[in-house]
Predict the 3D structure of the following.
Amino acid sequence: AFADDIFVALAAISILSCVVGVVALSLAFRRITGDPDLSVCGALLYYFGAAILVHGALAMSDSAAIACTALALLAMTYFPDQATERTAIFLGLATSAAIGIRPQFVVPLLPVFLYVLLTSRNVRKIAAGLISFAFLSLAWFAQLVEACKGWDKFIAWETRQAAYVAEHDAAASRGAHSAGEVAARFIFHPWGPKSIALPVLFLALLG
């Protein structure tokens, strides 16, 4: 509504999501480490990674999904002792929003979401989190099925998406590279070229 061009609107949402994500991640890290400077550095290190620099400001769903995930992680840091029912509601909404924007996030987020709620051992907080999650999930899920023109077409679309991702992920991780090569890529230079990763690893060893 704030832009005539939908591409410009989506790009603006992505840029705004990056700002929200940095703030939320910084606050989450601060609650974990207790060091405000280190927390900001950790959030900026993530957002200055090669993948975020390339995709973060594009008219795609990555930035918004990551921002919602960061908000969910921030809410999780209050559990189990400092969480209130409002915290549980916020956690449910943020988790559902992240999954709604990027359905693949259901694999890592949903189990952690359920575990964190259960750690509170409080029926009211657990119920608040589950109800808020279910309410928002139903809202975006109904619209998604409607956009696909019915349940059958939705299932067919999701099946094709899952098959495509599984085939290409498997080819990239197992067919095209050995286990050692995959491990080396994600451990020694996850930020891209070695010229970028080595200085980052050097600074990490110093710090």
Q: What stands out?
A: The first helix runs from residue 6 to 33. The mean pLDDT is 85. The radius of gyration is 19 Å.
